[in-house]
Amino acid sequence: MKILAVDTSTKHLSLAVSDGDRVIAVRNVAPRKDFSMSITFDIERVLAKANVRLGELDGFVTGLGPGSFTSLRVGLSMIKAFVMVTGKPVVGIASLDAIAMNVRPSRVSRCVQVCVINDARRAMVYSSFYDKKDGNLVRHRGYQLEGIDKILEGLAGEVIFSGDAIPIYRERIMEASGVFKPVFEPPARWLPKAQELARLGYQRLLKGEVDCMEALVPLYLYPENCQVSPPRGVA
Predict the structure, then answer these.
(1) Strand partners of residue 158
(2) Using alpha carbons only, what angle is made at residue 152 by residues 221 and 11, rounded to the nearest 5 degrees?
């Protein structure tokens, strides 16, 4: 099953092509001013690298954010166009799930707690909380938009933090860590990666858990601007 995965929730574009559970091509691109125009070129490049044509794909996976609403709309519009042209299924995955998938537990600890925190500005963070065991995620909270103190409530034991809000809130997390032990992922793992979206989406596609193209919208959590239901992600 050949899949194209795309994440545009941050300023960095992430693309991947996978065949089953094996990633065969990846392209990560730094911010560009002409993003809405250049994304087509970047998708062509990653497909060429994988030696896969658009019509040979069996499905698509797209990151839904939360994140940059404009970039998310560009990415979603592109994927929806591909779905319309090819008639192939599509799956939407929260980009926070992809960040949680970046965490690599040590051999000593195969099951870990993961808290993803992304900067939402206005002294808020986008967040969710997971157990990760043997490469699988179990989400224990909904996708949240809260202040950091609210996110930290109830944490216990060792918690691995990832996400681009770490530099902003590292000191506050350390101050609050009386009942939990924070471990911080390195910056290379703070952004959602399309190869992780592909792995998550492949499992959904195998089960036939596809999304209706018309219903796919960005996961945007500021209620005064836009209210959407969370995507079907990790249980």
Answers:
(1) 181
(2) 45
- Structural domain for 80, as ranges: 2-95+191-215
Please name the helix (run of DSSP H) or strand (run of DSSP E) that holds residue 126, with its range, or none. strand 124-133
Q: Are 121 and 80 contained in the same domain?
A: no
Tell me the per-residue pLDDT of 201-221, one tens digit each, with 9 for 90 and over: 999 999 999 999 988 999 988
* CATH code of the domain containing 168: 3.30.420.40
Inter-CA distances, 48 with 26, 52, 172, Å: 11, 6, 45
Pick from 222, 233, 116: which is nearest to 166 by CA?
116
C-alpha distances in Å from residue 180, one per residue of 119, 128, 140, 220: 22, 16, 17, 29
Query: Cα(55)–Cα(47) distance, rounded to whole angstroms?
Result: 11
Cα(106)–Cα(87) distance, integer angstroms: 41
In a domain, 108, yes or no: yes
**Whether 112 and 182 share a structural domain:** yes
Q: Are 80 and 56 contained in the same domain?
A: yes
Taking only the tens place, the pLDDT of each residue in 121-161 is 989 999 999 999 887 899 998 999 999 999 999 999 999 99
> How many folded domains does the chain comprise?
2
Cα 209 to chain centroid distance, Å, stands at: 18
Output the furthest CA–CA distance in the chain (Å, rounded).
54
Question: Do β-strands 2-7 and 59-63 pair in parallel, antiparallel, or remain unpaired?
Answer: parallel
pTM of the model: 0.90
